[in-house]
Write a structure and sequence with these properties.
By secondary structure, the chain is of the alpha+beta class. It contains eleven helices and 15 strands. Among the domains are: about 80 residues, 2-Layer Sandwich (Pseudouridine synthase), CATH 3.30.2350.20; about 140 residues, Pseudouridine synthase (2-Layer Sandwich). The strands form three sheets. Strands 1, 2, 3, 4, 5, 6, 7, 14 and 15 form a nine-stranded mixed sheet that branches. Strands 10-9-11-12 form a four-stranded antiparallel sheet. α6 packs across α7, α6 crosses α10 and α7 packs across α9. The longest helix has 21 residues.
Length: about 375
């Protein structure tokens, strides 16, 4: 029997309980309204077989830039490295690496990139290829508009997010237009996942992201996303270090309130959940709603992992101007700016909406 996957899902926001639903707002009317700068956390060493390029792009995906670099440098796609995927409709700055052992970059590379709207701001050599996920985080600078910026409680909402953190949802873009990536993921997992059907792992990611969001949404709905549960697996802030909590005592609650640790939920796969007691019971209650999806991920050989339920904003700033507001903040790698915006404003692109005709009966 097929899993019934409700779409669009009713995953709650954090601030609604205190402030009610946020007013309507706008963002990213043009690329210059949405800036993203990669925070690598280390510097290239200045020597080695790989040429690292610090690149600024507009209206181009990370994959588009990678393909252009491969073409201009006459190398294969595997010789290009980057740490993370950046938005297309935005001004983004990130590192790329090109494997050029024993040779220099092609003459005129910078000029050829510029003709395609890709600006190489600087370059350095490094001994190793740039790998996915090695960057520390991303700095966002966003222009907001609409009723949300005229709301007297905007500063209060912003302050709460800084103090308490943001639900670490995977953003709507992870699931594709109208949840289509999730529909496709279920189809592929039901017949048996194959690399040729999902070369970038996008469908596996959509399935695991859905299951994670469902667990986070359940804890938010119960008022327990910032409450320690017995058997919780906690993540130390700013790291991937995990430890289990047998008893949710006052010391654990104090560390959680201070932002030193965060509860986690499972990214499903082989090995299952490390949680115990009440936390495991909650996770199982959510995951048992979609057993075929879980089995499909196991058959695909994906290894289970954990992700924090909360993400903290750092290097924050809010500036209000007539008819608009600018917000800036840094998020760790893997976190979504749309999860932050969803707490500040209502906008169709921030919701998990459906364009699938049968959505009233669930994804089918």
């Amino acid at each position: 029997m097929r899993d019934e996957i409700p779409w669009p899902p009713a995953w709650p926001r954090h601030l609604d309980a205190e402030f009610g639903p946020p007013p309507e707002g706008g963002y990213r009317a043009c690329a210059d309204d949405f800036e993203v700068e990669e925070c690598l956390g280390f510097a290239p060493e200045g020597y080695g077989e790989h040429l690292w390029l610090w690149i600024e792009k507009r209206d181009a995906t990370t994959v588009m830039v990678a393909r252009e670099l491969a073409r201009l440098c006459e190398v294969g796609s595997r010789d290009i490295g980057y740490a993370g995927m950046k938005d297309r409709l935005a001004v983004t700055r990130q590192w790329f690496s090109v494997h050029l052992p024993g040779r220099e970059a092609p003459q005129g590379l910078v000029e050829a990139l510029a003709q395609r709207g890709i600006v190489a701001l600087s370059s350095q050599r490094h001994p190793r290829k740039l790998k996915r996920g090695v960057h520390r985080g991303n700095r966002f600078t966003l222009r907001l508009s609409g009723a949300a910026v005229d709301d007297d409680r905007l500063e209060q909402r912003w302050s709460r997010l800084i103090q308490q953190g943001v639900p670490n949802y995977f953003g709507p873009q992870r699931f594709g237009d109208g949840g289509r990536n999730l529909v496709r993921a279920r189809e592929v997992l039901e017949k048996g996942w194959r690399k040729r059907d999902d070369r970038e792992g996008m469908l596996l990611s959509a399935a695991r992201s859905y299951l994670f969001n469902a667990q986070l949404g359940e804890r938010l709905a119960r008022g327990e996303w910032l409450e320690p549960l017995g058997g919780d697996v906690m993540m130390l802030d700013g790291t991937q270090s995990l430890f289990a909590v047998e008893t949710a005592d006052s010391a654990v609650a104090s560390r959680l309130a201070e932002g030193d640790i965060h509860p986690t939920a499972v990214l499903w796969g082989l090995g299952g959940s490390r949680a115990g007691a009440a936390a495991a019971e909650l996770e199982q209650a959510v995951l048992s709603r979609t057993p075929a999806l879980c089995r499909g991920l196991e058959r695909a050989g994906v290894k289970a992992a954990r992700r924090a339920l909360r993400v903290r904003l750092t290097q924050t700033h809010l500036r209000r101007e007539p008819g608009q507001a600018w917000v800036s903040f840094v998020l760790p790698s893997g976190a979504f700016a749309t999860a932050v915006l969803r707490e500040l404003m209502s906008h169709p692109s921030l919701e998990f909406r459906s364009t699938i005709a049968t959505h009233d009966r669930g994804v089918s």
